[in-house]
Amino acid sequence: VLMINAASVKINNQVEGYVYVMHDITEQHKLDQMRKEFVANVSHELRTPLATIKSYVETLLYNDVDTEYSKKFLRIIETETDRMTRLVKDLLLLSKMDSEENSLKLEPCDFNEIVKNVVNSLSIEATKKGHNVILNLSETLQKVNVDKDKVEQMAMNIINNAIKYTPEGGVIEISTAYDEEGVTFTVKDNGIGIPKEDLPRIFERFYRVDKARSRELGGTGLGLSIVKQIVELHKGKVKIESELGKGTVVTVQLPYSKNS
Ligand code: ADP
Fold it and tell me: Where is the Histidine kinase domain (predicted)?
């Protein structure tokens, strides 16, 4: 997209020529477009649960609803408010990372320890679905210089997805490995997988393969975009490989220090 500004050059009120300035606004245009899309997405994501909450509140307020049904409706209201809370939390995290690019609180961390903590905190979910979680943690004790909270969040989002998008009784293999560059963290599942055509867009904010399924599983559509942002702030790399119906592998590489 090109924007052209034109101005005449006058000497003694005589037009002597014209100056044209061409700006390539493709990038700017794309950014504006993305921003607009993002705001539209946020509004939609917030309005959907709000509409549900309002309709159940109205039903409870203006009708005689028996105890069994009112409990059911209240539970739906609870689920929807939880969803909104998660969404607002994720949005705040993203916007904080957008605005403070150098906001990392780096400290030497034992990456295996971070992974173990996350696996522990998700063990109830994994057990509920009867998954077999296999931990393959490297014995190396080398520390990585990372922002502990953010890396924990990153691992949480990836492992949580593996649990969510794998049908009951799945196998989730979580590994760490160290080489001269840094640490490699891999989460492999044998779940529903991702269609090839969706893979290139999977790290975009609010992009989901199946909106209904993601909603049902309590997703916000922001998990992987948060992963990508955290990894990039650490000057690392993330990739996702997947085969529909077979499973997914997410691989994150982080350097020992983001400055190295
Ligand atoms: P969500 O909150 O919807 O889970 P994410 O950003 O974490 O959002 O993931 C985006 C989409 O990528 C999901 O909606 C899902 O379609 C797909 N996805 C992510 N991880 C996996 C996985 N391990 N297996 C299958 N699909 C996945």
Answer: 41-258
Cβ(199) – ligand 1 distance below 6 Å: no
CA separation, residue 70 to residues 57, 61, 181 (Å): 10, 10, 57
Atom number, ligand 1, closest to the C-alpha of residue 207? 10
The atom number, within ligand 1, closest to the CA of 203 reads: 6
- Give the number of the atom of ligand 1 that is nearest the alpha carbon of residue 222: 6
Q: 112-161: per-residue pLDDT in tens?
A: 999 999 999 999 999 999 999 999 999 887 899 999 999 999 999 999 99
**Ligand 1 midpoint to CA 34 (Å):** 20
Is residue 220 lining ligand 1, measured as CB closer than 6 Å? yes
